[in-house]
Input
Amino acid sequence: MKPRVLLENKQLEVTLTRLCYQLIEVHNDFSNTVIIGLQPRGIYLAHRIQKLLEGILKKKVNCGDLDITFYRDDFRKKELIPNRTNIDFIIEDKNVILVDDVLFTGRTIRAGLDAMLAFGRPNDVELLVLVDRRFSRHVPIQAKYTGLVIDSIETQNVKVEWTETDKKDRVTLIDK
Amino acid sequence: MSNLSVNHLLGIKYITKNDIQLILDTATNFKEVLNRPIKKVPSLRDLTVANLFFENSTRTRLSFELAQKRLSADVVNFSASSSSVKKGETLIDTVNNILAMKVDMVVMRHSSAGAAEFLSKKVNAKIVNAGDGAHEHPTQALLDAFSMREKLGDLKGKKIAIVGDILHSRVALSNIFCLQKLGAEVKVCGPTTLIPKYIESLGVKIETDLRKTLEWCDVANMLRIQLERQDIKFFPSIREYTMLYGLDKTLLDSLSKKIIIMHPGPINRGVEITSDVADSDQSIILDQVENGVAVRMAVMFLLAGRQ
Output
């Protein structure tokens, strides 16, 4: 089957802007809130959101990258390559927004929660994803902010592309 | 390239350039972990590691143990002096008995060259060589390369001098293999009696003049004179050795460029280097120790990741 485009260009921009305003509704001026993107694919979304928020709020918003390789439960089941963790702020007592591109089984987020706790005890943790693949969860984890909710089957893949690495912004549904 | 080409780390000789780079890159990630408020990751929580030290060690043993604990592995320690080895048990029997207690990985130091390789063929566990006689000490070479890379960037074309007791040094041999695989030039310097005859066949240059060597190099790795391994006199006296091959601040300051000083420890202060050199800003001796934990974490993490 031909890959189906779910989000692209203007549509994606609108979705990202909407997510930002939803965040502002809850977190006001972000004075006590930080964003953490999950490596490897969540960091692009996290930094996009950060830039948009900074544009709207006219102030700096903290955003870090978190690698979760060492916390995964499928270590030894497949080959994993660690990426860079870069969190240069304190998360103790902060409100943390975890950011990833696709929410599927929830296992990545589970590992992300574990990895994040190594940096301190946050006040509150929320999850933001661009695409939520409903009905495919292996662990009881839900996102508070979602760009798009889709119904998909195991044999399908959601591919999120960013200008930074793939030359265009696009979300597609592909049959494996 | 996302995993090691070997099941055991027996020596640098047996691993590829890609393996070395993978270990060093992974160690960078672990170094970041070690700077977090909570310095522990759960990666190896289902693994048991035995540290078998048939020879004395402070740094390596502590470093391995800390690395294992930071990876959440269960650790058992064993030292030859307080064990049944004294009662005449063979190496294979000792290790098999330990493995019968369901141990997945063995870190071993032994005074016989090839002990780790021998073990890897006989037992069903991942083996990490923590030094075998005067043969290899792979994790030391890796942490040395990691520390140099931190200071100098890519080691390709860099000039590294190894000074001192080359003949009895497993650190020297592992360093030579490692640095050459990474594209660096290696020169050894020491009294002729302490430079092995075959060393030139490895593509290493020999120099007997310390000043010339130091003028040439970017990094000087100063080795300890291993008196415990010397059964005959290789030089007339420690004092004479120090006069010819000891590095002091005057010599260091008189060089035309700032070189990096390394030492695998333990230091004999006042013999191979003086205190003011060891504690100077050109010395990265304590960085080496810090990096040792990260590099050993990377080695064990990557070995455990292999099916």
User: Anything to note?
Assistant: Chain A has one domain: 4-175. Chain A is about 30% helix and 30% strand.
